[in-house]
Amino acid sequence: MIVMVLSENTSRSDQLGSEHGLSLYIETKKHKILFDTGASGLFAKNADKLGVDLSEVDLAVISHGHYDHGGGIKTFLSINSQAKIYLHQKAFEKHYSNRPGNARTEIGLDEALLPNKRFVFCGERCGIDDELELFSGVKAIRLVPSGNTDLFAKEGSAFIQDDFAHEQNLIINNGNQTLLAAGCAHNGIINIIHRFKEIKGYYPDHVIGGFHLYNRGSKQDEKTEITDEIGKSLLKIPARYYTCHCTGIGPYQRLKAVLGEQIDSLSTGDQLTF
Known about the structure:
This protein is α/β, with parallel strands linked by helices.
């Protein structure tokens, strides 16, 4: 299995663009997968430079209903004519974020894309085949990112705290290894991993995604005691972590101090082979 970072907040090369967003290309024995599309069409430009033919992708997954993960859907639809795109059934609901000065900005997906026969809307569990499955419905039990308090949904005309029911996670069964891909881990990476174990009966071998330990609206890192506790909890789980996007530089460094070689950061252009 190959995982290539098409778009992320940082880049390994001056030749590859970066943005606040995430997009991964994943190649397995059976599938060529696009996991998230970043905030714009940048992922496609980088894919071309990296030698990834997006027209050959046979399946796409959007992790949740925020623009920085689904902003490039229109671009992907224009490049690829056959791949189904798997989204949570609540992904196109309206989502908002606090910005400096208490301005509330819409950060949802483009509703003009609806309807589309290529969209597959999922509930709490979605089995695709013996290699791929999606799950949501993660309970925010402990060590939940504090930055969530600046993120909202809308109920009628009222803003309500987002419960991230629209967030789904991808499981890839790769022979004798399993990979868990999480877009932003809004309901807490520890809670997501424990839900994975409830479903599968064991822990994933590899975990990739953002851990949402940096609040972009307030430009603040997660509290150090929370980040350290997350690190200690991750250390107890026999998995290898590759984090990126919304984890934040400072929080990643704290996690690295706790987890050592068990964790690494990803940037645009990086490639992993399992």
